[in-house]
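Continuing the batch. This is chain 6 of the set; chains 1 through 5 are on the previous pages. Same settings as before, nothing changed between runs. Recording input and output for traceability.
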Amino acid sequence: MQREPRSRADVCVVGAGPAGALVASRLASDGNDVVVLEAGRRFAFEERQGQMEQAIRPGDRGSVWEMGGERDAYSNTGERTYPLNVSRVKGVGGSTLHWQGMVMRLHPADFDAGHDNADPAWPISYDDLRPYYADAEAALGVAGDSDNPFAPPRDEPTYPMPGFKPSYSDSLFAEACESLGITTHSVPNARNSESYDGRGQCVGYGTCQPVCPSGAKYDAGVHVEDAEEAGATVIDRVPVQRLETDGDGRISAAVYATPDGTEHRQEAREFVLAAGGVEIPRLLLLSANDDHPDGLANSSGAVGRYFMDHLFAGSGGTLDERTRQNHVGFITSECHQFYDDPGSGVQHVDTGETLVAESDAPYSPIKLEFLNYAGPSPVEIALNGEDWGDSMLSHIRDAYGNNIAMGGLVGQPPRRENRVTLNTSRTDDHGNPVPDIQWSWGDRVRRSVSRANAIQHAVLSELGVDIGWTANVDGGSGPAYHHMGTTRMGTDPEESVVNPQLQSHDLSNLSIASSSVFVTAGSMNPTLTIAALALKCADHVGERL
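Output for chain 6:
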């Protein structure tokens, strides 16, 4: 394809993941001349069948989306190792090419510092983002039911599509939870429960992560195509090397490299960074110049700082009955009962025994999930085995079908020492310093993971599960690969990177649409909030054009 810059552009968007795609689609639809620069390639939809087959065979799943190598090099110098490339994608569609598809709204308390901990408030409220949440649900195509008594308030009573029915193992969990006074409810998913927006309904391949071959699960390619139909130019395989500034406190151009190494300058009136919580701060730091010696948009020193993620807590084992795991490739039931009140007790309905929190110290919100893909799948057993015919069938029957597990997320508090910096001793395929992740947990994360494990063990024990594993602070727990917080939003230019309109405090024509602007992590999957903020960002950019 032609990779030369447009001679005239109103907006240059860096990144073609969910945020960049939504920004480009909205601004192009409003008649603006938009250029999108994406570091990775465009994956043809026709490739997905082969990718699915590759994913279910033994081997390295990461290669499905071609991550790794010198292009994607990084380093760790923090207390904890952060395996950055395990779950990110560079390509048109970004992380939504392989995401799970769960789309929950943050709670009002997440924005207002309403949780009983030391997290700061956002400079916007839930009500500020509420209409954008509704727009995002319509744009992504969300299937859900209004059965969650702990959900934040909505202006519209229903989701764009009806929710998915609970799985068989959900019904097992529901009975055990009822005995403990725990409420279960459905999960909103960005996948079609019926035909929507020109895409068919989910047909149950079950390989949602890392690839949906049917297109029923939303990926940002939907809005990339919308943007192109509205006149936007999307250029793939052109990693942006740096941003250049003029003498008037504005970005003048994004300098990008083509596959043959040629550099081009894309000029525009407005620039929007939408490349995620690691690559955005890296690009700003790489763009340091005489006027901005510490990197762009970094007069506060906050670029790259307050890196956050969600920690996984989980436990599972086997049951003396069939659980029908691996029939559904995504989560259909969860529990938000411990989100706003993670220390609340769990009392057995029959015995009156109460499971109380072990500490009065603050917790992170806790989101609990009932997994539908515990244990090996029949395909995995068959492909990894050495037997055939009736022997293989017998092996599958013995090894498959009675596993069961719970999962959950707890969010990290924003810690200044958790950050993304440049490692000047190691370079990528263009000679640029690679990102270095400095990551640690802290006591609140450990306490919250342990609290989630205690609730999970209570439910599994009530169900009669022979618990065989637990992902806890001593082993198994790790990141959910939700990169947040490295260009935080705020009203004080000395403490934050962007203002409530997602506009840089330092550079008037630079905006950031990403989870990197999150002030706190909450404990909900972040993509719906990313989408809502992207639509908000697009509106503010449009007002300035």
